[in-house]
């Protein structure tokens, strides 16, 4: 499953040329460890960046934070997402 983030500045439009990183945590795990820790995302155009989350388990819930990098102001730098196991064991993305 791809984790996708888009970086947009409302004044200038899409933000390209970034090297965002992603962290993913299993929120059912009581430790503070991330299962994916600051891995670089790939740019795919139009301000979109993706990470291929291959070790996903559909019965688990995940917290995802994307860091667009230090060149962005804090207003645009951070994005968070949640992947939550649904009643049929599918995942629903909550933004």
Can you put this structure into words, describing what you see?
By secondary structure, the chain is mainly beta. The chain has one domain. Helices cover 4% and strands 49% of the residues. It is built from one helix and ten strands. Strands 5-4-8-9-10 form a five-stranded antiparallel β-sheet. It has a three-stranded antiparallel β-sheet with strand order 1-7-6, with no helix packed on it. Strand 6 and strand 7 (48-52) form a beta hairpin. The longest helix has 4 residues, at 74-77.
Which characteristics define this entry?
five-stranded antiparallel β-sheet, 95 residues, 1 helix, mainly beta, single chain
What is the total tally of β strands?
Answer: 10
Beta content: over 45%
Question: In order across it, which strands form the biggest sheet?
Answer: 5-4-8-9-10
Which structural class do the helices and strands define? mainly beta
| Separation of the first and last Cα atoms | 16 Å
Helix content range of the residues, please? Answer: under 10%
Taking Cα atoms only, what radius of gyration do you get, to the nearest Å?
Answer: 14 Å
In one word, what is the shape? elongated
Largest sheet: 5 strands, antiparallel
Averaged pLDDT:
88
